[in-house]
Amino acid sequence: MLKTEAVLASENPIVPAWPEVILGIVAFLILLFILKKYVVPRFEKAYEERAQKIEGGIERAEKAQAEAEKALSEYKAQLADARSEAAKIRDDARLEAEQIKAELREQAEAESQRIVAQGHAQLQAQKAQIVAELRAEMGRNAVELAGRIVGESLEDEARRRGTVDRFLAELDTAGATNGAGK
């Protein structure tokens, strides 16, 4: 037993045996080779794909942003055009409304003048009719009164008309001179 104890005492438990070290190094080199040959290229490929996706995403985002800015500028231009067109339509509508108002005012004034002229014409016609009726009635009354005063009948129509017309003409001239004198 001493021998096993001496063998165990001569071997250092911290230092590994050389065959294990060589086997570990060989296994490690094989592992490195497999990683380098198969795993690292896949990681590199995945990294490249992600990098391209990110760069493509950035490019797409920049393109989308440029398109959005372009659409925004077009929208603002269309909005400005629409506002100017709306202002033009409002101005045209105001002008048209003013023209229509002026035309309606002119038509109303013309209609008013026509109605006033028609009223004056009717008044003149009624006045002439009333004056003619009054002259005839006044002439009859004057002849009747004159007949009562004179005591004889003044039935002669022609003479009676002449007398009445002369009397009314004298009244008109007397009224005109009295109205002018005042």
TrEMBL record:
One of its GO terms (molecular function) is proton-transporting ATPase activity, rotational mechanism. It is found in: Cell membrane. Residues 44-114 form a coiled coil. It is a single-pass membrane protein. The chain crosses the membrane at residues 17-35. One of its GO terms (cellular component) is proton-transporting ATP synthase complex. The keyword Chaperone does not apply. InterPro entries: ATP_synth_B-like_membr_sf, ATP_synth_b/b'su_bac/chlpt, ATP_synth_F0_bsu_bac, ATP_synthase_B_chain. Keywords: ATP synthesis, Cell membrane, CF(0), Coiled coil, Hydrogen ion transport, Ion transport, Membrane, Transmembrane, Transmembrane helix, Transport. SUPFAM superfamilies: F1F0 ATP synthase subunit B, membrane domain. The keyword Metal-binding does not apply. It comes from the Bacteria. F(1)F(0) ATP synthase produces ATP from ADP in the presence of a proton or sodium gradient. F-type ATPases consist of two structural domains, F(1) containing the extramembraneous catalytic core and F(0) containing the membrane proton channel, linked together by a central stalk and a peripheral stalk. During catalysis, ATP synthesis in the catalytic domain of F(1) is coupled via a rotary mechanism of the central stalk subunits to proton translocation. F-type ATPases have 2 components, F(1) - the catalytic core - and F(0) - the membrane proton channel. F(1) has five subunits: alpha(3), beta(3), gamma(1), delta(1), epsilon(1). F(0) has three main subunits: a(1), b(2) and c(10-14). The alpha and beta chains form an alternating ring which encloses part of the gamma chain. F(1) is attached to F(0) by a central stalk formed by the gamma and epsilon chains, while a peripheral stalk is formed by the delta and b chains. Belongs to the ATPase B chain family. This is ATP synthase subunit b. It comes from Amycolatopsis dendrobii. The gene is atpF.
